[in-house]
C-alpha cells in the first residue's frame, strides 16, 4: 500500500474527525513535512481537506468520477463523442488522441481523462488538470480544409464553448483572442489545436479542450490563483460535468456543421460578438516581440487585426493578449 493510501486509510478510520499532522506522522513514521507533501499530492488527485491550525486536517470530499453511462445516454450528437475513450489518469489526452489517429480512429472520437499529469497548454505552457475536477478532453476531427484555415477551427471551438457556458449556466463568459474563455477577467478554459497536414491540407486535427469545472480556490497552485477560475466558483455551486459535456458536444457539432456548410463567416460574426479583446487598447506578446494598439476585428483566416498608433493595421496570427 502506498503512503498516500495509508494516509487515506487513517482519514477513513477517523470518520470525519480532524487528524493532526503530528498524529499522522507518528502513526506512519514519516516527518510532518512528508505528511504535508502527501496531503498536497492527494489534493491534486481531487481529495479535499480542511486544514485548521492546532487541529490538523479533515477529509471533506473525495474525487468524483464521471458517470460514463450518463454521458453515453445524454449524447445528442451524430458523431462527436460516439466513440469514446475514457482514462483515469494520462499524461495528456492529446498524446492519447495522436496515438488513436495512427490506429485509424474516426472523426468525432473523443478522449477523456479524469486527470492529466502533463497537460499541455498553448505556447509550451502546462495545463493544470487535477483529478475529477474538470473536463480534460481531446476530439479528433478530419476536416480536410486548407492548412491556413486552422485558426478558424480554433475560434470555432471557443465560440461553441462560450455558447455552452452562457446557455447552460447563464454565466457571462467572453473570448480572449484567440481562444481563451474568461469569466470576470479570469481564465476558465483553454483550447489547443494540434494538427497533421499533407500537401497543404489538414488531414486531422486534435482539438484539446480544458474546462475548469469543479475546481475550488484551494485546487489552484499559487501562480494561477489570481488569474484562473472555475465554473463552480463562478456559479457558486458544483456543476454537473456529464450534462455540461453533452451540451458542449452538441453545440460544437452544430457549429462545425454550420462551418462545413457556410464557411467561416457566421463563426466570425459569433466570435466577434462574444469577444472581450476587440475595440479596446491591448498589448499582444508575440514570438517577434510585443505589439500595442487597438484590436479592431478578426479577418477571414482568424488573424487579429490591430490598429497601431501610427494608424497602420497589423495582422497577428498568434500571441498572448494582455489588457
Ligand atoms: C491553453 O489555454 O493554453 C490551452 C489549454 C488546453 C488544455 C487541454 S486539456 C485537454 C487537452 N490535453 C492537453 O494536454 N491539453 C488540452
UniProtKB/TrEMBL annotation:
InterPro entries: ArsR-like_HTH, Bifunct_BirA, Biotin_CoA_COase_ligase, BPL_C, BPL_LPL_catalytic, HTH_11. Acts both as a biotin--[acetyl-CoA-carboxylase] ligase and a repressor. Its EC number is 6.3.4.15. The keyword NAD does not apply. This is Bifunctional ligase/repressor BirA. GO terms for cellular component: cytoplasm. NCBIfam families: birA_ligase (TIGR00121). Keywords: ATP-binding, Biotin, DNA-binding, Ligase, Nucleotide-binding, Repressor, Transcription, Transcription regulation. PROSITE patterns: BPL_LPL_CATALYTIC. It comes from Paenibacillus solanacearum. GO terms for molecular function: ATP binding; biotin--[biotin carboxyl-carrier protein] ligase activity; DNA binding. Residues 79-260 form the BPL/LPL catalytic domain. The gene is birA. GO terms for biological process: gene expression; regulation of DNA-templated transcription. It catalyses: biotin + L-lysyl-[protein] + ATP = N(6)-biotinyl-L-lysyl-[protein] + AMP + diphosphate + H(+). Residues 21-40 bind DNA.
